[in-house]
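Q: My labmate handed me this sequence with no annotations at all. I'd like to see what the chain might look like in three dimensions before we decide whether it's worth expressing. Could you predict it?
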Amino acid sequence: MPDTPLKVAIVGLGWWATAIANGAQRSEELEIVSCYTRNEEKRAAFAKEYGCEPAESYEAILADGSIEGVLITTPNTAHAGQIEAAMAAGKHVWVEKPITNTLAEAPGVFKAWRKAGRTLAVGHCYRRAAGHRMMKRMIDDGTLGRPLWAEAAFTNPAGQNFTTDRWRYFKSECPGGPLMQMGIHHCDTLQYLLGKPMRVTGLHKRLATPAEIDDVSMTLYEHESGAVSNVTTCFTSPNMFTMKLHGTEAALHLEMVRENLTFAERTNEETTLLIEKKGETGWMQVELPAMRDMVQDELEEFARCARSGDAPETGPAEAVHALAMVEGSVRSAEEGRPLEMAALLDGIDL
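A: Here is what I predict for the chain of 350 residues:
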């Protein structure tokens, strides 16, 4: 296995690309050698800041034999085509969630990935945060007892100011609104903690945004473990990130107070985890393990998997289940009935 950093290009240079590029720079396992976005001025500035070469096109990156992988942080609707093109060019791919904009696009991505035999990792980073890792440890070691139910919320006021020049404004480009952009992180973490969901019931409302999207959602999931969970998201209320997990022996309450979402390296220190045990009164703080931040961790795993051929923790199958949790919620709300996950995933060769 080569001991040199994996040479990667980053594609799509919006605000989250900053967090990804900074995570790569904190690591010795990746090297950003090129970047691309359609805006020439933006890509020149990014290249100068991160010491890489600005590419003239995505196709130029794919044709460059020295580039081993691509980090994709483009709008959701671009993901499927860009993954398929990268796989055809023999590149390893890390793509920010969601893996695709719709479940209908997933079979093409799976076909391209299997044909290429390259690594495909998806940026579901929050399960890697220290608080969620500790929650999983407390499930596995019996501290929580049998997990029974969970509730999670992720809110941000950005949707109060969405305009038609922003892709998140449109239902076709951001189906599910805040559930797709934020709540999907909770969806992935909940399947990590409680097992894959079997049934989904969704409620979506457009209450306080000028955009086409619904800005408030509440979704109930029934998991294979028997546990139930709900995820609430909102694009028009102040910032909040919480998760509560209740078992037969204890309850856990996690909260992240993020000063700036792009500073992923601060996530662990901005997290508080509390526990209340059966038979005891009051919440006690849980000490979190010292560990790499969630973005650096996922990128380093991607680099190692590209070298070794091992499967990443959040690969295509995990990502498609998380996407189905979002799309299933939207479709459930539209149809006014619970939906079975098996039916949503029918036709996708997992």
